[in-house]
Amino acid sequence: MAHPRVEQLRFARREWLRGLEGVSEADAGRRLLPMNSIGWIVGHLAWQENRYWLAQAQGTDIAPQLATLVGNGAPASTPPLAEMRATWERVTAAAEPFLEALTTASLERPTMIAGVPQTFSVGSRLQRTTYHYWFHTGEVLAIRQMLGHRDLPEFVGDIEGEAPYVAEQRA
To answer: What's this model's pTM, rounded to 2 decimal places?
Structure first.
């Protein structure tokens, strides 16, 4: 079993995907100002995971185009949902071995960027990523409400069954 914090990230990802169910390509490309489009949000979360778990943690950037398309500070865009979803799936699948190997001790270590230790830990990065999913889950659902979508998820899913609290084991 993966570290409990990794399981929480996985649960946040699943809930975010649940919020995307039934979104059409056309609706994903709509931009309701000042928010970004749903297609952008999907790409943006792929960008973060690629940046943290692949490029910075392992020196492997499998989606470099995301930085200029949907990274922080990039101009607004409305990338196609199917393309961003496929990129997200590729990135998260590639990140899984790294995430699966995390331990309490490795989460407490400083994040390394280009061989330079940072002031924040790998665990802080993991929490930031998890919380980032929750932020954008709410944003996606707000956009969908504004577009008139019905029967949307109204609350966090089965956290007790899928991602209950588990105490961290000290190494």
So the answer is: 0.93
Write down all domains in the chain, each with its CATH number in brackets: 4-162 (1.20.120.450)
Residue 25 neighbours by CB distance under 10 Å: 12
d(CA 44, CA 123): 20
Hey, what are 127's tokens? 């929490």
Task: Give 112's strand partners.
Answer: 117
Q: What are residue 61's phi and psi, to 5 degrees?
A: -105, 100
- Whether the CB-CB separation of 119 and 110 falls below 8 Å is answered with yes
Beta carbons within 10 angstroms of residue 122's beta carbon: 23
The conformational region for residue 152 under phi > 0 = left, psi -120 to 50 = alpha, else beta, is beta
Cis peptide leading into residue 64 (ω within 30°)? no
| Whole-number Å distance between alpha carbons of 5 and 142 | 27
Q: Which residue has the tokens 């995390």?
A: 102
pLDDT digits 0-9 by tens, 98-118: 999 999 999 999 988 888 888
Rounded distance between C-alpha atoms, residue 108 and residue 127, angstroms: 12
Higher per-residue confidence, 1 vs 63: 63
